Amino acid sequence: MLMITLGVVGLYAAFLQWFLGWGEILSRWRTVGSGTGTVALALLVATYFIRTHRMQDYFRHETHGRFLALFRVTQIHNLLNIMMPLRTGETSFPLLMRSEFGVPLARGASALFVLRLLDLHALLAAGGMGLVATAERPVVAGTLWALFLVLPLLLFPLRKGLARRAKRHLPAKLSRVIDEIDAGIPADLGAFGRAWFLTVFNWGIKVAVLAWVLALMGVWPLSASVGGALGGEISSVLPVHAPAGVGTYPAGIAAGAAALGASRTPDALETLASASVNTHLLIVISALVGTGLSLILPFLAGGRPRG
Prior knowledge:
Layout: H1 2-19, H2 22-26, H3 28-32, H4 34-58, H5 60-63, H6 67-83, H7 92-101, H8 105-133, H9 138-149, H10 151-155, H11 159-168, H12 172-184, H13 189-216, H14 222-237, H15 248-259, H16 266-300
Helix pairs in contact: 4-6, 4-13, 4-16, 6-7, 6-16, 7-8, 8-9, 8-12, 8-13, 8-14, 11-12, 13-14, 14-15, 15-16
């Protein structure tokens, strides 16, 4: 699997050199500036700590007092998820949680499934902001968006009845999916509400940072840069995902930006292509930095590598 990933990355790098040239691609960072780039990188790494806090709250009994160990688990899982194709990296999470914290495989997998559904909901809600901003009737659109944003909280008290009703009309295989979702949902609204809020907060920061970087690199109007940020991130949570996201992540950025008003002149398309590749590089670098921190911080905190 590693050799496949390295081969795909190598071919992708060669294609970009032929198509745009790495000198042209990396020159876009001059318009951003090293200071701004460092701030963007720091904010992206900060979202990993928010994500770890969400996970610790979700598994509060198993992970109590071991934040750094959980940070290492979430970062290894995140890096594998980025580098391995077709979401195969997701399988590492329940395995890591079992080995590090004794969480049963079924519980780890079901909780991850629910958290991924919350991730997708948060991303779609962020995309809805762009639709509200361009709507002819913004008050109506804004009200519908707000209802969609809090929809998980509204559905939480109804989950048992909805699950029973859905299972009566679904095949056995899909019924098992409903059981898995139900098993991964926290028992009380407070815990579920915290998971929902941390998910929205985390993705709000990440999308804002990526849109900011895209805008600084020349992806305009602002709705297009937001669309590009959303497109890239949505591509990363879908089942079709290339090794290290090469090709699929920049394509998601380009598609999202085009859908929300990016110019399609030759110069604008070249700018969008370069900005998409650079934003993807920023994501990969942030994942590597986060993983490096997860390995270093336990030693800095007192030489206890197990957190």
